[in-house]
Amino acid sequence: MALLEKKLAGVAEEALPLRLAELWSFFFSSVLPYMQGAFLPVRMEARLRGVEIPDMRTLALSGFRDLIVLPVCPRLEGKDGLSQNFITL
After folding, report:
1. Distance between CA atoms of 55 and 43, rounded to whole angstroms?
2. Which end of the chain lies in a sparser environment, N or C, as judged by fewer CB atoms within 10 Å?
3. In angstroms, rounded to a whole number, what is the distance separating the alpha carbons of residues 62 and 15?
4. What is the pLDDT of residue 7?
5. What CA–CA distance (Å, rounded) separates 44 from 61?
6. Which H or E run includes 32?
7. Closest to 87 (Cα-Cα) out of 58, 63, 65, 60
8. What is the pLDDT of residue 38?
9. In three state form, how does the secondary structure of 46-75 look?
10. pLDDT score of 82 more than 60
11. Could you state, in order of their start, the residue ranges of all structural domains in the chain?
12. pLDDT, tens only, 6-59
C-alpha cells in the first residue's frame, strides 16, 4: 500500500481523480486477486483447524480505503460530486 500511496504524492489537483481511478483499477484487477491467492493456503489451513481469521478481501479493500482514498478526500471534496457520504460508507 505504501507504493500506491507514493503514486498520489505530488499529483496536481485536477489530475487527482484520474490518478486515483487508475490506482483503483490496478489495485482491484491485479493486487487484490494476488493477495487473495497468496493467502488462500493460510485461510484453508485455518478452516481445517477451526480457527476464524478475517477475510483477506475485506482487509485489503478496507486498507485501500483507509490508506489511499481517505487521506486524499479533503483534496477531492467538491470535485465531481464527491461528498461526505462517500467517507461514511
Report:
1. 8
2. C
3. 24
4. 75
5. 20
6. helix 32-48
7. 65
8. 95
9. HHHCCCCCCCHHHHHHHHHHHHHHHHHHHH
10. no
11. 15-88
12. 777 778 888 888 888 999 999 999 999 999 999 999 999 999 999 988 899 999
